[in-house]
Design brief:
- GO terms for molecular function: oxidoreductase activity.
- The protein is α/β, with parallel strands linked by helices.
- The protein folds into 2 domains: about 90 residues, Translation factors (Elongation Factor Tu (Ef-tu), domain 3, Beta Barrel); about 130 residues, Rossmann fold (3-Layer(aba) Sandwich).
- Helices cover about 30% and strands about 35% of the residues.
- The protein is built from 6 helices and 12 strands.
- The strands form 2 sheets. A 6-stranded antiparallel β-sheet has the order 4-3-6-1-2-5.
- β7, α2 and β8 form a beta-alpha-beta unit.
- The longest helix is centred in the middle third of the chain and has 14 residues.
Length: about 240
């Protein structure tokens, strides 16, 4: 891990309350797909964000931040305001152990909700480039369709890679939504009777990841050693 100064290249609101941040690092920093960085607000405050770009993109770091004035996103809104006021920031990276394992051909399942797609995106784009024949399925969830800000990118990838399957799921559908509804975990449980052969990568709350591990391992034969999530790492450290 190193401390790195980055130029804030752009801050774009791609859907209501979801921002795409592009940073230009002053020096190249190597990382693995699925890792994250810490934005340093001050000595006492460092806030983690998944890296949405891939390790091949050495000149630019992409982040996705969900932020609003609501209490739920107040911390992230503080980061957006911090970025708007500063042309350069300092980050610590790389961090996290839930990176892509690319020394295997096991099929991959990616599970993400909201801006957790940033984590899944880095892994997805990397594995499609490095292992174009490896089977990948991605379950992505959100409260409403507005939270699925990446659908057009996924649709383009589906046209290019026949081994890729994408399952978007929303909790509160409107009358025009024709896709899956409910939670991403429920969708996985409905679609799979056996997850024994999968490497599973998850971005979500500690509660969601804990529930997923219990369900997948006890009811769908998944191996805990093949489930990767920084929330899971946190749970292991606490036990």
């Amino acid at each position: 891990m190193i401390t790195l100064t980055c130029k804030v290249l752009s801050i774009d609101e791609i859907t209501p309350n979801i921002y795409r941040i592009l940073l230009i690092p002053e020096v190249t920093c190597n990382f693995r797909a699925g890792q994250y960085l810490m934005i340093i607000i001050n000595e006492q405050k460092k806030i983690p964000f998944s890296i949405a770009s891939t390790p091949r993109e050495t000149n630019c770091i992409e982040l996705h931040i969900s932020a609003s004035v609501s209490k739920r996103h107040l911390c992230a809104m503080t980061v957006i305001n911090f970025l708007l006021k500063n042309s350069k920031i300092v980050v610590e990276m790389p961090q996290g152990t839930a990176w892509l394992r690319d020394d295997t051909k096991r099929p991959i399942m990616l599970i993400a909700s909201g801006t957790g797609f940033a984590y899944a995106r880095s892994i997805l784009l990397t594995v499609l480039k490095q292992q174009p024949h490896r089977m990948v399925v991605i379950y992505s969830g959100g409260r409403t369709k507005n939270n699925l800000y990446y659908l057009s990118e996924l649709e383009n990838l589906l046209l290019q890679y026949s081994q890729l399957t994408a399952v978007p799921v929303i909790e509160l559908p409107d009358e025009n939504w024709t896709g899956r509804t409910g939670s991403v975990l429920s969708a996985v449980m409905q679609d799979y009777n056996n997850l024994e052969m999968y490497d599973i990568y998850m971005a979500g709350s500690i509660k969601m990841v804990k529930s997923a591990c219990e369900l997948f391992c006890t009811k769908r034969h998944a191996h805990i050693d093949h489930i990767f999530s920084d929330a899971l790492t946190f749970l292991r450290d606490q036990s």
